């Protein structure tokens, strides 16, 4: 969630999926945006609030910070090439 902005209709469909799944089973979702930025990503702060309300109700949040593993691998490969 957050890589690309969703069109208004897409945000509604995603909300419907989450609403129907709410309290029936697990949902795993990843995002590179803070919760405060979801309204912008979804194009509708009301939908974002309702969606987050359902997602966060029984959730466990894992906030991971740090360098991207892809960038870390690229830097390591670059160092190996320079050392060769």
TrEMBL record:
Residues 1-77 form the IstB-like ATP-binding domain. The lineage of its organism: Bacteria, Bacillati, Bacillota, Bacilli, Bacillales. It comes from the Bacteria. Transmembrane segments: none annotated. One of its GO terms (molecular function) is ATP binding. This is IstB-like ATP binding protein. Pfam families: IstB_IS21.
